[in-house]
What does this fold into?
Amino acid sequence: MTERIAPGQVVRVRVPATSANLGPGFDSLGLAVSLYDTLTVETLEDDDLVFELSGEGAEELPRDATHLSVRTLDTALSRLGYARRGLRITAENVSPHGRGLGSSASAIVAALCAANALVPGAASRDKAWILQLASELEGHPDNVAPAIFGAVAISWQDGDDFRSVTVRPDADIHPVVAVPAVELSTEAARAMLPSSVPHTTAAANSGRTALLIHALKDDPSLLLAGTEDFLHQGYRAEAMPASAGLMESLREAGYAAFISGAGPTVMTLAANSAEATRVEEFLAAHAAATNESDGVFWRVLRLNVDMEGAKVEVHRR
It folds into this structure.
């Protein structure tokens, strides 16, 4: 018989939003940013499931066992050899949903961290285990890795194993995002990609990915060149014309802009604080000039790179 986790525990997990790809790093690069979702899990004596949800997605997401966090929690506990009774779950969502900022990855990572904390210490596992299961559930590691470890994550798959290493970017780099008031599913964006690309395209893209790592760590002046993509953004532009147009306008102005994840959020990596201010001003002017004409309204957020990743902030037994 599967052992049940002890009642009377409270675990609170904070997880950063993430941006995948960063231009040329398709399915391999991700960045953690200072937008945080929190998940609080209280284990109950009875079998009730109480789900309180606020913030982004609160009007659309389920408040029962079909919610991604509950399904992930159950999967993780099962892998660890445990099961649950009742739960009181409080989810506070700050990261926009369906915008290319890793909201599903955040939910998965938060639930896995919570499950890992709820089991006895001898049964708990390390972050490599969390990365493996999170990547299996998400389908790829590019968002879950920075959500777990923070900073910039370089991720890859080795057979059935998912691996990741962390790069700490230059402290002066500031991500600035323009989040449109429209959603785009990752599945829809992926469906627009070709099954193959020319060898020259792949070679050009790998060169820019290597340059981007150098720019992030050692020379932010090269961020514009380092974020140029040849592999995926052009094919997806038709699904998000306003985002594609804004990205191109930013790049023509000399700013290192790209589509965040599968879109439609546009992220710019500013080399320093002064440049971040100029990007904010550029985006404000763009919104004022285009909001009514194209019907896409933008929310501009100046962020920091999160260096910690997922964090269990509270654990009371």
Notes: The longest strand covers residues 25-44. DSSP finds ten helices and 13 strands in the chain.
